[in-house]
Write the structure tokens for this entry.
Amino acid sequence: MNHPKHYSIKWQDDWPWRKPLPEYDLDGYRVDNTRDRAMQEWLDGHAIAIVWLMLLAIVATGGYFAYAPLNSIGWIEHTRQTTITAQATWMVGEAKHCVSDPAKAFDMVLCDGGPPRDMPVSFFGREIQPEYSAVNWNCIRDGSGFTCLEVSGNPRQ
């Protein structure tokens, strides 16, 4: 049986899931494509949202699994109100070598023997470091506080 192949194309042809649905099968019998057409129309209306949700899921999953390694190498900033020993002569932009306890590296930072002060300090490093006996920091005075970058640690003996 030779029937004309009729395709009513009401969609955007460049979308990958969109291909014309045949009206007749290979034996020449009429095919009911109502359910398939309904699915294609639903995809047309929701395709952008589906793509954005997939991208959001990928980014969120990557961020979740990337946090721990990035934190362990000191690329994640941790800002805390911390006790830091700083002389009044420490100028803005000046860097000094500092040391802290590895059990709670962000609680108190000993820098230059000055009086202890509670200041906001931004740390780039890990807070708990049981493999060291002391944590070494390179601290720079900002306009409103300090930024401390972990340099190394003294290994336990």
Helices lie at 34-72. Residues 75-155 form one domain.
